[in-house]
């Protein structure tokens, strides 16, 4: 085993941080499969379709010392009243309820079946996970308060967190994930969430990314839906050096609904790469995807969304849209929405647009007394509001708007 780790370490730069094998009770066979995959997997390059527009050479050449700086600022909080859990530099330091527990404290029997997909960062996560949350909501239980999971970083270390989220039949829950870092933070955060929704269950996840350092952030949600379930994931990238979001949903029960909404507002040389896969395996289901971006300076965005409709998945409604506004001639967007349909009785559509603000609209607003900066702020905030309006939790919406008002001086109507 040590030889396997050593050989892999020499191949993948991210292992130079001295990571140790997970002590979490995953099945040994699954861990060995992940290690074997890593051993035979080269680091992704732009020659691979999944990484065509995202260069990882800087990450592959980076050594992480493991140094941790003191957290200088207060830990951000979205909700006034929530079940709150805080990870500081990968260590669980605060938990306010027994509704969730550290995954290190979970019996191995509850982790049977947890495996990694054939993807480098997911295999890395399974083999080297140091902690995470285990959330299991019993049948017919409605969680009355949001579950708030906050990860703050100020480090130069590689951190792998694994979250397990399971909702029983007709259970309901709302989870807010907050990722924040100090300006001096320059670490590597790799988070995987395994999500299972029972019959008639409802889960809403708000994922808020506001990392101010030069961290590498990789986040992945693997979800499976049973019949009559509803899954909503709202991904808001408000700041981040290099961010990769992967969402993979298997719709395995009829009359299930999947909603994926995303907004990203980038500046300087920031990069965000959103990859989504919704796999419709059965009939009578619906999926909706809406992603919008605003890009300043020399920032870059990637959107690659794919919807599969399998032969037995008749009567599917699937809609996918990606729209972007470039606020600079140096900003760049690569958008690729895709449909792969093997059924003949479906309603599916996809679309992508990228452009600049309408000069006539700016002129109209300036003619009515607004400055050019205020006119542009009003237009871009109206543009991104299509996504924000999908968020039903007012506290989450207020938090996002306050960040955007502070960072970009955007105007939002009360």
Helix content: 10-25%
The beta-strand count equals: 21
Largest sheet: 10 strands, mixed
Radius of gyration: 21 Å
Principal-axes shape call: globular
Taking pLDDT < 50 over at least 5 consecutive residues as the criterion, the unreliable ranges are 1-7
On the 0 to 100 scale, the average pLDDT is 92
In what range is the share of β-strand residues?
A: 35-45%
**Could you say how many structural domains there are in total?**
2
Number of helices: 7
Q: Which quaternary structure do these chains form?
A: single chain
- Based on secondary structure, the structural category is alpha/beta
Gap from first CA to last CA: 58 Å
Strand arrangement in the largest pleated sheet: 3-2-6-9-11-13-15-17-19-21
Secondary-structure element pattern, one letter each: HHHEEEEHEEEEEEEEEEEEEEEEEHHH
Give an overview in words:
The protein is α/β, with parallel strands linked by helices. The chain folds into two domains: 2-367, no CATH class; 368-414, no CATH class. It contains seven helices and 21 strands. The chain has helices at residues 2-11, 28-39, 57-60, 120-128, 359-367, 372-388, 394-408; strands at residues 67-68, 83-88, 91-95, 100-102, 133-137, 147-153, 155-156, 158-167, 172-181, 188-197, 202-211, 216-225, 230-239, 242-251, 257-266, 271-280, 286-295, 300-309, 316-326, 332-341, 346-355. The strands form three sheets. A ten-stranded mixed sheet has the order 3-2-6-9-11-13-15-17-19-21, covered by helices on one side. Strand 2 (83-88) and strand 3 form a beta hairpin. The radius of gyration is 21 Å and the shape is globular.
């Amino acid at each position: 085993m040590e030889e396997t780790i050593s050989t892999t370490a020499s191949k993948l730069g991210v292992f130079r941080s001295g990571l140790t094998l997970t002590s979490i009770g995953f099945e040994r066979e699954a861990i060995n499969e992940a290690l074997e995959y890593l051993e035979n997997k080269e680091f992704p390059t732009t020659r691979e379709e999944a990484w065509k527009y995202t260069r990882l050479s800087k990450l592959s050449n980076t050594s992480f010392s493991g140094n941790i700086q003191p957290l200088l600022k207060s830990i951000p909080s979205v909700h006034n009243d929530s079940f709150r859990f805080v990870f500081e530099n990968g260590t669980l330091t605060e938990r306010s309820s027994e509704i969730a527990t550290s995954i290190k404290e979970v019996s191995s029997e509850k982790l049977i079946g947890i495996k990694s997909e054939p993807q480098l960062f997911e295999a890395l996560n399974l083999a080297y996970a140091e902690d995470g949350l285990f959330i299991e909501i019993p049948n017919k239980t409605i969680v009355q308060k949001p579950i708030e999971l906050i990860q703050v970083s100020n480090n130069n270390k590689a951190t792998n967190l694994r979250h397990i989220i399971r909702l029983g039949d007709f259970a309901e829950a709302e989870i807010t994930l907050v990722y924040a870092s100090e300006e001096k933070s320059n670490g590597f955060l790799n988070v995987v969430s395994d999500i299972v929704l029972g019959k008639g269950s409802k889960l809403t996840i708000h994922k808020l990314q506001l990392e101010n350092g030069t961290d590498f952030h990789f986040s992945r949600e693997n979800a499976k839906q049973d019949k009559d379930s509803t899954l909503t994931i709202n991904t808001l990238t408000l700041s981040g050096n290099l961010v990769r979001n992967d969402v993979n949903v298997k719709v395995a029960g009829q009359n299930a609904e999947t909603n994926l909404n995303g907004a990203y507002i980038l500046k300087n040389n920031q990069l965000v790469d959103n990859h989504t896969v919704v796999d419709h395996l059965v009939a009578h289901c619906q999926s909706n995807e809406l992603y919008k971006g605003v890009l300043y300076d020399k920032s870059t965005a990637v959107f690659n969304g794919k919807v599969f409709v399998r032969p037995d998945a008749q009567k599917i409604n699937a809609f996918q849209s990606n729209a972007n506004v470039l606020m600079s001639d140096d900003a760049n967007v690569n958008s690729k929405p895709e449909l792969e349909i093997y059924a003949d009785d479906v309603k599916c559509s996809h679309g992508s647009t990228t452009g600049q603000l309408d000069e006539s609209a700016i002129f109209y607003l300036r003619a009515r007394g607004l400055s050019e900066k205020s006119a542009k702020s009003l237009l871009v905030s109206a543009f991104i509001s299509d996504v924000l309006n999908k968020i039903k939790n007012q506290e989450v919406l207020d938090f996002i708007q306050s960040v955007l008002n502070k960072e970009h001086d955007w105007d939002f109507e009360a």
